[in-house]
């Protein structure tokens, strides 16, 4: 271990501040940005100003004479590592009528509006959920009461449509209701494994439906035992089936339930695992384990969880959450004497317990039923964050038994401190109303397994809170309050990545986002010090290693743990398929997984179609702004397009050459080739062409740009795309046609111009090398929103035009870009160029460049055309340089020397893309769609960036690259973190 760098230290102002906090790490810009955007209110600019507001607000629950004392204690607890949940930090002490509670569970009955056995009807439940989300709370539901599809509806003499159909209604409502003025509400949908519509539920999200839901299956022990024994299970409901279902074999059991059908448990279970492997959902909740372990088993039934699943809750139950940043309690981080300050941690946990109890008294409640439920049971959920980083700082690798033992000990200390503090609060404030010592401390539930000393104290003093512990996801609060310490119980996902954040003017600003433990290590030991073996990220671990950590901690947590088992895209299904079974056998209450894959990434619109609808002109309201519009995009697979850069060739490469003879002289055409082996080889293992260029004083002006653009197409591994490009060049007409000898025998052929003749020779050589053979992959063609140039009606459409003048060559012409409006994944539209052309006095070879770039413009990922245009910015030509204005969005007036007409045209096209908010003025995409597989950036000091991964559309950048990471939504394209924690 290298010695620490003895840099200046920010010494603690009190002996209670953990030693690890003394390291003078500079603050990350992203932390301040997230703090101001998500949590700060009014004039707040610093962490302490926000913490003071929260402390003051929660102290209002104290007796007037003690408020100043507790306000100071609450502020100190936050400085020492307690981070109240997001809703508390953003709303406590403000004038907002928003709840301080992150999430709830709401009951849903079977009738449309009337109560069903005391449970509100479907649309009453929808109204209650909308009010809850409007006030800032996420909502979980069990939809199992809703009668199955095809069940008899006596009141209307009709058939039921089933729970999934009503989930769509809740989904659309969630999409519409803005939550506490800042975000869309989160939802969890649960259906029991024995519901007759369970198969439809399993596959409900396969094609992008229910975007505003996480979904989980409620699984019973009986079902899992049937999976183990390969037995059949009955799918049942109390609602009577319709005539068709009865005719198909549905019957009523002796207990009154109707059996709709039977099927093998393993068949159903395999559907669950396959769907989870391919689509990252559904998750699984082990209902019997949840209810058997429940401290209030004697007075409530739990069938659902909050949206991130760390809180199994009864109807109208809430999760009042907060987390302690464990990294602040590591002393001598990374050193041989690294240790965890258990005493300091326990002290903060005790104060945090009191703060969360106070939240229940000061929060506005969206519904009276929620307030009543909370007052009877006073559930809170104290947890921790930064476990992964803490283990690294203690020199413990996440997937070792030593690390799991440390996590057990930390969880045990937290459990004991929280229950002890709650017992003391019961003396001061009274036990929760439904407390019954004999029932609470027996029956095999969590409380019955507490240490005997704690049980004796609880029996004597009572308990203020029925439940006290929950390990929640902490994505945004970790960024804002904990220097991006690892999230919750998770290991770090990446040591470093770039966050591209959309600014108010539509542009993007980039931030470096670094993991706390990695930053601290670099700060202490230098950027070049080798990382210790303890530095391991989530995707480097096996799925069983993730689950084993949950199993180690779960016995010390009375509700549940939010844990997403992230595995890489190539993780074998054979190793994945038993993961949930192992979780059940380990006594876990549930589990969620995420594996990025092409199935997820292929859906760029909610309702994909194999063939795009025709482009058509659409008239705006004033009848003057007519634009072409495409209503749907085709499917395309994430990272499917290769970055066609020239390979590094230190030893050179062979090239085939041919003399092009045209009316104004001769020049040489070269086709650069590489020996190829394996799947990239041409016919019979011959060379592969990878670039073309022209050389000679008599080559037509602009032809080098055609060659440069076509070279990138040769490297795409898409023969059909290359054929399309060469076809586009084959009919480029110039001043007059001419005959030219062509290979192999020098036969003379008539060509409309030099571009067409050059393309014909290139095609011949590519055919000889097998580079145009049929049947290979077509990634670029698949990523086009239109292969043909969009055509207008006789009504016409808008286009963008700009005049170009090069005094050095006497050229004066107009560049015109035809434009089309495309849909975006979030339901909006964006305008994109789709074709370009020239009119006036210009080099006719530019028509060939225009045809090539027009095809490039119709590739969905704007990074593709940006790459092509940037390559043309340095194209020069003898005596062709000239001075012209620099196009800028700011309107700044300045001029510069341009190396050629081509370079200036490329700059003008980039400028138009910048005007439309697609590329920046350097030609880089403002919105990275993720189709183009760009080279991985080289990061210093062992950092690892996050590659773009398949997922759902990101609300920030619009890319289908948002995955579920550490219980939170996370965009692998722009770094956006969903509101969680």
From TrEMBL:
Transmembrane segments: none annotated. The keyword Oxidoreductase applies. It holds the Pfam family Ribonuc_red_lgC. InterPro entries: RdRp_reductase_class-2 (IPR050862), RNR_lg_C (IPR000788), RNR_lsu_N (IPR013509), RNR_NrdJ/NrdZ (IPR013344). SUPFAM superfamilies: PFL-like glycyl radical enzymes (SSF51998). It catalyses: a 2'-deoxyribonucleoside 5'-diphosphate + [thioredoxin]-disulfide + H2O = a ribonucleoside 5'-diphosphate + [thioredoxin]-dithiol. Residues 102-594 form the Ribonucleotide reductase large subunit C-terminal domain. Its cofactor is adenosylcob(III)alamin. Residues 29-96 form the Ribonucleotide reductase large subunit N-terminal domain. Catalyzes the reduction of ribonucleotides to deoxyribonucleotides. May function to provide a pool of deoxyribonucleotide precursors for DNA repair during oxygen limitation and/or for immediate growth after restoration of oxygen. This is Vitamin B12-dependent ribonucleotide reductase. It comes from Roseateles subflavus.
